[in-house]
Amino acid sequence: MPRSGKSHPLRFGIITDIHFSTENETAAAEATAAELRACIKFWQGRDVDFLLQLGDLINGSDTFKHEELRQVSSIFKPFPVTIRNVIGNHCLALPRRELMESLGLQSAYYTFTMQGFRFMVLDGMEVSVLRTPETEEDRQLLAHFHAHPELHDYCGAVGSRQKAWLQNWLEEAEHSGEKVIIICHFPLLAETTDQRHGLLWNHLEIAELLASSPAVKACLSGHYHYGGYAQLNAIHFVVLPAFVNRSAHPRFICGTVELTGERMVVQNQLDETLYTLPLRH
Fold this sequence. Notes:
Blueprint: E1 10-15, H1 26-45, E2 50-53, H2 65-76, E3 83-85, H3 96-103, E4 110-114, E5 117-121, H4 136-147, H5 160-176, E6 179-184, H6 203-211, E7 216-221, E8 228-232, E9 235-239, E10 255-259, E11 263-268, E12 273-278
Parallel strand pairs: 1-2, 2-3, 5-6, 6-7, 7-9
Antiparallel strand pairs: 1-10, 4-5, 8-9, 10-11, 11-12
């Protein structure tokens, strides 16, 4: 059960890019389910306050996508803490509205607070080949993608309305003295990914906006399956390795993040510390 009181550091479980699949042999899906249950047991033993699922929960097979979501959701259902879900590109093999309903999301981008920290979850697929743009700025952004296919059609961008929402909440956090943690499925700095995986289409604009706000302390992302780290204006940009590639990097399958006013500590499922990062003041 999550801890009560404010005397404890804020601690949450974290996992990304599960890519749950039922397309291969049944035994493979059962083995994946067993490893996810082991992660849940680990988080329960660490008394986490919530779980952050960073996107690409399912593989998104044309034939099995509904069954993938049903099975992986059933694995997490008994876990007695709030799960904060992020929409990844693979997730959108399902219709957006159906996916959001299943994940309990009213909006694909949202914010919540705990112990003086404001978490801001971004929707990196708000502008993408999967949606009709809602504003002229978004139409121009999508047109720019079509002119630059090397940006990858499985990536996307933060749209104009979401940018305005982000700016407003950053200003509110600055005024109220909250420390902001940004959450986005896609990496926001080129140093934390590679060309094949790509990153948020308008990463430069969003990273610049974040760097200009003294409230922002760190950004957590997935998508790049091998993980990465970089700094911009003393903000920590941490990209965590993918669960689906756990055989390639067994040092991180899932983990925890602990936050205090002074630092952010990221640990793996073996209780090894991957990062101890001082938070800028």
